[in-house]
Amino acid sequence: MAMANLSSSILFDIGMITSLLATMAGVILFPVGWWLLSAPDPGVPSDATGHRVRSLIRITVFVAALSAMAITMQQVAFPNWWAAPQSPLANHSGLIRSFLQFASVAAWIVQFFTAMIYIRWLAMLIPSPRIYKRARLLMWLGPLLCLFYWAVIPALIAAILYSNLFSWVKEALTEIAKQQKPIQVPAE
Questions:
Q1: 59 Cβ contact partners less than 8 Å away, ≥ 6 residues apart
Q2: CA 119, CA 50: separation in Å to the nearest integer?
Q3: Which of 65, 123, 142, 174 could form an S-S bond across to 138 if both were Cys, CB 3.0 to 4.6 Å?
Q4: Is the dihedral of CA 38, 43, 47, 49 positive or negative?
């Protein structure tokens, strides 16, 4: 009996560590990807519409990532915040977590709509009507499908459409990069 409890405890701990690492990887990789994708293009004038959107994407991705990391760290520091009322920090843990979750969700919502506007702007520069149309479709369909996250299938459909969109963006940008000539460095 003691051995069964020990093995289930070890499996639970491994599951928690794996979940924490996967969450942290997503919290790190998502902002890094958006930071790279929204890097300023030296060939586009700085007063173009895309530069304002790029700045907003970078701000919201930073806020969302920071709040997600804070939520994760709080969950590690106070895993049973509801069961330990004697700790003064635990008393405010629920309020802090609620604030952080609200900030994170608000930043993700703003980032999503800003990202779709940015992708549509980028699609016009590429030019790719297919990317433009998919970004326009996801602007309203993505949030609508995610409202039913408990049903799994609509959220999965939104994730697949979103993934396809970024696959197309990657393909288009890779093709543009292949067509550009490398910079010739003068010999010294």
A1: none
A2: 9
A3: 142
A4: negative
Return the amino acid letter for 75. Answer: Q
- Token pair recorded at residue 147: 């409202």
Residue identified by tokens 């993505």 is 142
Q: Are 68 and 101 in contact (CB under 8 A)?
A: no
Say how far residue 91 (Cα) sits from the centre of its chain. Answer: 30
How many residues belong to the chain? 188
Cis preceding-peptide flag for 127 (omega within 30 of 0)? yes
**CA proximity to 146, closest of 161, 136, 156:** 156
Output the tens digit of pLDDT for each of the chain's 188 residues.
444 555 566 666 677 677 777 777 777 788 888 888 888 877 777 666 677 888 888 888 888 778 777 777 776 666 655 445 555 555 566 677 777 778 778 888 888 898 899 899 889 888 899 999 999 998 988 888 877 766 778 878 888 888 899 999 999 989 988 887 777 777 76
Those residues whose C-beta lies under 8 Å from the C-beta of residue 27, and which sit 6 or more positions away, are 65, 68, 69, 72
**64, 108 in Cβ contact below 8 A?**
yes
Triad 38, 41, 45: Cα angle to 5°: 120
